[in-house]
Specification:
138 residues, 6 helices, mainly alpha
Length: 138
């Protein structure tokens, strides 16, 4: 484990996140809100992608990767047994079943179909962090 690499990754990740999300906080206090200005989605997205952005730049800067294509190939390489991927998908599929099995009396429940609609968002959004850490800790 390369501690310098991890430190640089964390420093850059938090710097990006603090700068872009801090900008949104300051603008929000001034009354400039993301709901009123579509251009504010740019710093919002960049702040959210901070781990993946930092990963690429730290790895490129330390000559661990040669370029963007090599980095992308590594992110999408299956590095574990397929049974773990199947288990993860089955685990996701249990959530709608749990909604049906929850005892009555809960006042607010989202429709079950929202789970399937949001599944790609959860996988992509949650997977970005994995893409950031993938090379850093090996």
């Amino acid at each position: 484990m390369n501690k310098k690499l991890i430190f640089n990754f964390l420093l850059l990740t938090f710097s990006i996140m603090i700068i872009f999300n801090g900008l949104l906080l300051v603008l929000g206090q001034l009354g400039i809100l993301i709901n009123d200005h579509i251009w504010l989605y740019v710093p919002y997205i960049v702040g959210g992608l901070s781990t993946i952005i930092a990963s690429y730049f730290v790895l490129k800067n330390n000559n661990i990767i040669t370029g963007f294509i090599e980095w992308i190939k590594n992110i999408f390489t299956i590095k574990t047994s397929i049974k773990y991927y199947v288990f993860t998908v089955l685990l996701y599929l249990t959530v709608p079943v749990m909604f049906v099995l929850i005892p009555p009396g809960l006042e607010r429940m989202e429709p079950v179909y929202l789970f399937f609609a949001l599944l790609p968002v959860m996988v992509i959004g949650g997977g970005l962090e994995e893409a950031g850490w993938r090379y850093i800790t090996t």
